[in-house]
Amino acid sequence: xxxxxxxxxxxxxxxxxxxxxxxxxxxxxxxxxxxxxxxxxxxxxxxxxxxxxxxxxxxxxxxxxxxxxxxxxxxxxxxxxxxxxxxxxxxxxxxxxxxxxxxxxxxxxxxxxxxxxxxxxxxxxxxxxxxxxxxxxxxxxxxxxxxxxxxxxxxxxxxxxxxxxxxxxxxxxxxxxxxxxxxxxxxxxxxxxxxxxxxxxxxxxxxxxxxxxxxxxxxxxxxxxxxxxxxxxxxxxxxxxxxxxxxxxxxxxxxxxxxxxxxxxxxxxxxxxxxxxxxxxxxxxxxxxxxxxxxxxxxxxxxxxxxxxxxxxxxxxxxxxxxxxxxxxxxxxxxxxxxxxxxxxxxx
Length: 348
Hints:
single chain, 15 helices, 16% strand, 2 domains
């Protein structure tokens, strides 16, 4: 998209990679455009969406030269399309925003303030809500109540404290030059290219985390939710544990090295219809010892309704803080009356 000759280079580019999100991206753009000020642009990369995404974005871009839309001829995957968005951006910093979540009021101003002393990375906190945004699931994903600053000497503390939040790409505001000078293509296909960029050696210099939630996430609405078993049991831990320059303690604080060994987690994925005999054969049939495989196979063939009731009882009796898991059980495709009752009692 051509730029007006007199448009100055912005301080911040809000970069969105989107695919088949015509239903949501308009509301996302509304939450961003209402906050724009001089020095901020929005870059949308559309990975060849077959729906009405072009029309929705065009309506928002009318008369707004600071919103630039790039429709790609083919979909390069979430990692490749975010990398393209940073390439198209002109800002000194890039905020890798999602295409279905919302910025809370004042978010852009707060991020701009956090960039004043030139950090390499700002990590933005977020709250999670039900997909229709009507109910709060998590007040904040990063539990910090005060902003923190980490230098390269504090890399273990940063990973341990912030690594889980950074599974959400919308938390990332990174210096564009730092992104472009680091390896990216090796992380295509992980669905977490930003994590690869952030935690590969050498460490980024100055990192700031913002305690105040600035984003409202539609929990359970990610495009790859249906691939949750593969992603959280294998892709995510493989990526985190590939960062060998960090201590085992720091990496373990983010996720176990082999979460698939936890039969309770297999049971939850079975209850959520993410684990079955197909996943067992693909991922687990050749892993672990005979007793583990027996248990994993038994869970894979457990009737989903029974698995959901067992998981619901577990949330009721042993996991009072498992709000996200409880929400998935209460409002997912394989719900139970018990899960809905417990969810209502806990305000979900």
